[in-house]
Amino acid sequence: MGGFAAATTVRKKAEGRYAADLDGDLGIEGAINGGYLMAVMARAVLDQSPHPHPVATSASFLRVAKAGPAEVRVEPLKAGRTAAVARVTLVQNDQALVEALITTGTLDGEAEPVYSVDQEKQPPVEECLEFGPTHGFGRQVDMRYDPATMGWLDGRPTGVPEIRGHLRLREPYEPDGVLLALAVDALPPVVLNTGAKGWAPTVELTWHMRAVPAPGWLSVHGRGRLVRDGWFDEEVEVWDSAGRLVAQSRQIARAGRSG
Amino acid sequence: MGGFAAATTVRKKAEGRYAADLDGDLGIEGAINGGYLMAVMARAVLDQSPHPHPVATSASFLRVAKAGPAEVRVEPLKAGRTAAVARVTLVQNDQALVEALITTGTLDGEAEPVYSVDQEKQPPVEECLEFGPTHGFGRQVDMRYDPATMGWLDGRPTGVPEIRGHLRLREPYEPDGVLLALAVDALPPVVLNTGAKGWAPTVELTWHMRAVPAPGWLSVHGRGRLVRDGWFDEEVEVWDSAGRLVAQSRQIARAGRSG
Hints:
2 copies of one chain form a homodimer. Chain A starts with a helix and ends in a 5-residue tail after the last strand. The first copy, chain A, has helices spanning 4-7, 34-48, 137-140, 177-183, and strands at 10-14, 17-22, 27-28, 31-32, 53-61, 68-79, 83-92, 95-105, 115-116, 141-145, 162-169, 202-209, 218-223, 226-228, 231-239, 245-254. Chain A has 4 helices and 16 strands. The radius of gyration of chain A is 18 Å and the shape is globular. In chain A, α2 (34-48) packs antiparallel against α4. Chain A is mostly beta strands. The first copy, chain A, has a single domain (4-107, 125-254), classed as Acyl-CoA thioesterase, double hotdog domain (Porin). At the A-B interface, β5, β7, β8, β9 and β12 of A face β5, β7, β8, β9 and β12 of B.
């Protein structure tokens, strides 16, 4: 109930072992959000890393998490000047829920891009839609959706697996690497726009932090490239309020049954 | 010297332990190709999985591999009806070189896409360029490059981090999930086209097998979206000879010094 900062707090119990308390509020209909789980794991790995930024996170989602106590285990695999790598496991009732490889590094907040794609246009926050319950995830995370990508909500999926929106927390909390972990998995599944329904469980999600985000809203743009044989990919780009690409992700997930 | 099939052969020593012999031929100037290392790891994980296809592979490259004996250690994390997940480590001289999470599954070769992006146009094999040494990697892998993306080769980088080409092995070997692991890391680094020079070591690479490839050439399309602060992303799509998207990857890597 304390919001995202409280919900991602970890307490060091021993070298490489952290206690966490998973907040059921950061989920939708009982399924705790995978981005939130990655955020908790990022907190633990950053506590023991010489570097402040989660540059690369690859997470395999093994079992469904439940609200309540959990443990994050961090095993360093390499500690370098440019990057450190750790194996990070989220454990509950002696079962691994999520295993991840997390590379931490030190990004220069001031560096200018040598090359960057342009941000795709999307309507400003005030022209975007709110929807969904204001309890649970919606009480913590303020999401506003581009109406052009929300046809599925009225039973008219656009046919293109794409959803765009803006995201910020309702509590005072400016974007950082931990919030980016939430942002890359915060959108409804893009396959809702190709007729899939229901839950779309993530099997594997990899995301990269590319720059230190500016304060303010984050823009999130989710896009799939292939929906086939019950599997779909979802790529999310996160742009900050200064118009910079700050995170990239791709997940592979199971599509809910069409119907 | 025996080609890709021989170079990726693994021999089971005990439950979850496989002997491999890394072939220095599958490298460039002494650096063994990361895609080849992932292919060796895929062979081991497929040997013990109930599923035939490496649906998701996330690999952290920790240390440089050398030609010669190595061991692949496979630790199952989950075995499900739809997907199995294992932690897979490539070890040489008691040091982990690559650690990966590999999800295996069973893809339906006949399924029609619910949605697919279109393949970007590229010139046919016979209008593409060969370059590079015909020993080592070039003796094993036949690569043909779209001339429009090869400006860097003549000191005129295009300014866009993009390289396209076609790939097949020189030995008789039709595409499969193991060859796709090589294909997603076979292109020269796309940052050569934004002025970077020299080696561009991969830090983390995740790839997904999306369909069972048809026989024949594979088309590989590499594209970066942000080059900043010494880091770049490279996304590779692999299309088969039937025009289907069969693999997707993204790697995060360090850019060589511009100059």
